[in-house]
TrEMBL record:
<dbReference type="GO" id="GO:0009252">
    <property type="term" value="P:peptidoglycan biosynthetic process"/>
</dbReference>
<comment type="function">
    <text>Cell wall formation. Catalyzes the addition of glutamate to the nucleotide precursor UDP-N-acetylmuramoyl-L-alanine (UMA).</text>
</comment>
<dbReference type="InterPro" id="IPR013221">
    <property type="entry name" value="Mur_ligase_cen"/>
</dbReference>
<keyword id="KW-0133">Cell shape</keyword>
<feature type="domain" description="Mur ligase C-terminal">
    <location>
        <begin position="313"/>
        <end position="426"/>
    </location>
</feature>
<dbReference type="InterPro" id="IPR036565">
    <property type="entry name" value="Mur-like_cat_sf"/>
</dbReference>
<dbReference type="Pfam" id="PF08245">
    <property type="entry name" value="Mur_ligase_M"/>
</dbReference>
<dbReference type="InterPro" id="IPR005762">
    <property type="entry name" value="MurD"/>
</dbReference>
<dbReference type="InterPro" id="IPR004101">
    <property type="entry name" value="Mur_ligase_C"/>
</dbReference>
<dbReference type="GO" id="GO:0051301">
    <property type="term" value="P:cell division"/>
</dbReference>
<keyword id="KW-0961">Cell wall biogenesis/degradation</keyword>
<dbReference type="GO" id="GO:0008764">
    <property type="term" value="F:UDP-N-acetylmuramoylalanine-D-glutamate ligase activity"/>
</dbReference>
<dbReference type="GO" id="GO:0005737">
    <property type="term" value="C:cytoplasm"/>
</dbReference>
<keyword id="KW-0067">ATP-binding</keyword>
<dbReference type="GO" id="GO:0071555">
    <property type="term" value="P:cell wall organization"/>
</dbReference>
<dbReference type="Pfam" id="PF21799">
    <property type="entry name" value="MurD-like_N"/>
</dbReference>
<dbReference type="InterPro" id="IPR036615">
    <property type="entry name" value="Mur_ligase_C_dom_sf"/>
</dbReference>
Length: 450
């Protein structure tokens, strides 16, 4: 960890806790800052705040009082989940107080370089694939970020002979200043989180931040098949490494004759890849590009691709019960992710879907519901999804209270040879704190059924 003096004796407000806020507050305290933590959860229920207080950090809980900014803070480190239209955040902007997220701190103290991955879909799978490929080649590699491990925690122990593979959300990327990865990856861009960003333009701008500080010595791996991504790429100063599932790219990664090539070198036949789903091909191309930039052998790449079957909650195969295959795709928190999952199967599907209502009408799902024989809905969007199901001609449509109830109902509507798929097309926050919790409940219900 770099021993920087940038924050010594500076007054800093950490806004919002959760994992990243706790890490940021502790780190800044170590770096000599005068830290105040402000979290909405009441102190009596806030274990994290209580522990920070024991470290000697000032803690204010229960609300976000705007008057707090009268204390003369020089910096705000904001939890990514707190939107910029929050009154205290808006006031900080009016006062021209810099606002960053915890990943910026991680970059500033890290001795290790970063491979940073963002995009609407495929981030977690791509991040995990890269990590596994580097590990298979016996490289010293760490994994962090939106995938579950806080970046600044990992960065504190990282050394200059290691590499940090970092998954980043648009929320996190809105709060960077100097962050500059050795390799940046933009998997794709589709409509998502518009309730947070306000407009697609702002969402795209946030994603583009991943390359804003890169120079010629860094690399930017980009989706050649998306014009919007290539617009960002052409503004980047980094060395571009494009990938495509449609075009032959002699200076990038592409598909030809049912095989994957990097700079015209054949890497692997597609039929030898264990990871299911056409949508995962883009993720694999990204991972191969990153691995080759780190001189990873084809043998190590192939070893991973022959065995890797996906990450938890992302089209994760759970088990087969009486000829029914159960898949957990709880991370499908938007419509596009669910369409990708549905395209992965030719068998009849019993679809479990529903969750937070963000104003979507779900009509984009209709062309992908041909194989869906039954639909089980839950959550705020249940009624909307049922209407879409009827429009698609699905005969068996049922509503339940939650995911746990959906599993036995789905089984009752299924036959041998069917796929039972949890792919909600919605965020989980109406009923579950995270999509991970929603997925874990699904898994437990499947095991209980067995």
């Amino acid at each position: 960890m770099k021993q920087i003096n940038d924050y010594r004796h500076r007054k800093i407000l950490v806004l919002g806790l959760a994992k990243s806020g706790v890490s940021a507050a502790s780190l800044l305290h170590k770096l000599g800052a005068f830290v105040t933590v402000n979290d909405k959860k009441p102190f009596s229920e806030n274990v994290e705040a209580q522990r920070l207080l024991e470290q000697g950090i000032k803690v204010i809980c229960g609300e976000h009082p705007i008057e707090l900014l009268d204390e003369g803070f020089e910096l705000v480190v904001k939890n990514p989940g707190i939107p910029y239209n929050n009154p205290i955040v808006k006031k900080a902007e009016e006062l021209h107080i810099p606002i960053i997220t915890e990943v910026e701190l991680a970059y500033q103290i890290s001795e290790a370089p970063f491979i940073a991955i963002t995009g609407t879909n495929g981030k977690t799978t791509t991040t995990t694939l890269i990590y596994e490929m580097l590990k298979a080649a016996e490289k010293k590699v760490l994994i962090a970020g939106n995938i579950g491990t806080v970046a600044s925690d990992v960065a504190q122990t990282a050394t200059d002979d290691q590499t940090i593979v970092l998954e980043l959300s648009s929320f996190q990327l809105m709060g960077i200043d100097t962050f500059n990865p050795k390799v940046a990856i933009l998997t794709n861009i589709y409509d998502a989180h518009l309730d947070y960003h306000g407009t697609r333009k702002e969402y795209v701008k946030a994603k583009g931040n991943i390359t804003k500080n890169q120079a010629k010595k860094e690399y930017f791996i980009v989706n050649y098949d998306q014009a919007e991504v290539m617009e960002i790429a052409h503004k980047s100063k980094a060395m571009l490494i494009p990938f495509s599932t449609k075009e032959e790219l002699h200076n990038g990664v592409y598909v030809k004759d049912n095989a994957i090539f990097f700079n015209d070198e054949k890497i692997i036949q597609i039929e030898k890849i264990a990871l299911p789903g056409k949508h995962n091909l883009e993720n694999i191309l990204c991972a191969i590009a990153a691995a080759k930039l780190f001189n990873i052998s084809n043998n190590a790449i192939n070893t991973v691709l022959h065995t890797f079957r996906g990450v938890k909650h992302r089209l994760q195969f759970i088990e087969e019960i009486n000829g029914r295959k159960f898949y957990n795709d709880s991370k499908a928190t938007n419509i596009l992710a669910t369409t990708k999952a549905l395209q992965s199967f030719t068998q009849p599907v019993v679809l479990l879907a529903g969750g937070l209502d963000r104003g979507n009408e779900f009509t984009q799902l209709i062309p992908y519901l041909n194989n869906v024989k039954a639909l089980i809905t839950f959550g705020q969007t249940a009624e909307k999804l049922e209407e879409i199901g009827r429009m698609a001609g699905i005969k068996a449509i049922s509503r339940v209270d939650n995911v746990e109830e959906a599993v036995p109902k789905a089984y009752a509507l299924s036959n041998e040879g069917d796929v039972i798929l949890l792919s909600p097309a919605c965020a989980s926050w109406d009923q579950y704190k995270t999509f991970e919790i929603r997925g874990d409940i699904f898994i437990k219900a499947v095991h209980k059924l067995k």
